[in-house]
Specification:
This protein is mainly beta. It has one domain. Helix content is 0%, strand content 42%. The chain contains no helices and six strands. The strands form two sheets. Strands 1-2-4 form a three-stranded antiparallel sheet, with no helix packed on it. It has a three-stranded antiparallel sheet with strand order 3-6-5, with no helix packed on it. It is elongated and about 55 Å long.
Length: 85
């Protein structure tokens, strides 16, 4: 899990080195990962985290879902309605 900070639009130049990506547009997600979620699934159980990791940039196609978060009693909880909780 992580915080979606922004989405970048990258227009790649025409260049044969880029192969199939030459002249294409790519969308990149700037994310800040949540720390200490211990691999838990917030769609089936309550998941808390205590801090954020370093910013990363990934292809937007790697983002599986967008979830929410709420702060209560001094910690952050992830709100994920993609499954059963």
């Amino acid at each position: 899990y992580g915080r979606l900070d922004r989405i970048l639009v990258c227009d790649l130049p025409e260049n044969r080195t880029l192969g199939a990506l030459s002249g294409k547009k790519r969308l990149l997600a700037v994310l800040t990962p949540c720390k200490h979620t211990n691999g838990k699934d917030a769609s089936t159980e309550i998941v808390t985290y205590c801090g954020l990791g370093p910013v990363i940039v990934v292809d937007l196609q790697c983002v599986m879902a967008v979830v929410g978060r709420v702060q209560t009693r001094g910690s952050w909880k992830i709100v994920d309605h993609t499954g059963g909780l």
